[in-house]
Amino acid sequence: MSGMFIVVEGIDGAGKSTLCQNLRSFFESEGLPVVCTEEPTHDEIGMFIRRGEAGPVSPTAESLLFAADRAVHTEKIREWTSSGKVVICDRYYASTLAYQAVPLGGPAPDRDWLEAVNGPIVTEPDITFLLDADPQESMLRVGRRGGRSKFEDEEYLGKVRENYLRIAHERGFIVLDGNSPPSEVTSEAKRAIERKKVV
Ligand code: TMP
Predict the structure, then answer these.
(1) I need a surface site. Which of 15, 27, 155, 180 has the fewest CB within 10 A?
(2) H or E element that contains 8
């Protein structure tokens, strides 16, 4: 039996982790085996990124690091789905298309290049949710949780959000209102999953 691959995207503080956890509970209550995973991963390359071990690199170099992590991760995702698991992934290739396309500490790489680098290494998710949230509200949530990353800046995230909305439109992502209560967001996501008849 083949499983399914669900991705949750959104700016920092949009509520992705909560949605991932709620979807996990939903699938488990249906008796389905679930793997929750995320990018950057907690494997060697993902931890190299998380610890900032490459130093202050340009968005272009950063894109390649994220892509290397993704290439290894995608092999695992394929194994999980082909053994019948539901894979719920917090961030995937759209994070690179949305974040690294905004200049930060260096010029941003071209969008076509970002797509060309990611295209051959990814597997297309069955569903991608974009949790669309107001950057000001998201930054408040990020502030409450502490330990800001360099990406957690309201103006920067405003541009990332615009990229996300454009990508979502082009690629048929399901856009959810991240400013709504988490229970409503989860119910809407479940309805979308049922509409796609993946459960
Ligand atoms: P997290 O906060 O969801 O764990 O993600 C860590 C940061 O990495 C977040 O601010 C977004 C950023 N990021 C990118 O800029 N590009 C990517 O491709 C990925 C996967 C994450």
Answers:
(1) 155
(2) strand 4-9
Picking from 109, 114, 80, the residue whose alpha carbon sits closest to that of residue 4 is 80
Q: Which domains does the chain have, with CATH numbers?
A: 4-195 (3.40.50.300)
Which residue of 8, 12, 89, 130 sits with most ligand 1 atoms within 8 Å of its CB, as the best mutation to test the pocket?
Answer: 12
Question: Could you tell me if the CB of 69 is within 6 A of ligand 1?
Answer: no
Burial class (CB in 10 A: 0-12, 13-18, 19+), 8: buried
Question: Can you give the pLDDT at residue 90?
Answer: 98
Compute, in angstroms, the gap from residue 9 CA to the centroid of ligand 1. 10
Of the two residues 162 and 58, the one the predictor is more confident about is 162
Q: Cβ(134) to ligand 1 under 6 A?
A: no
pTM, rounded to two decimals = 0.96
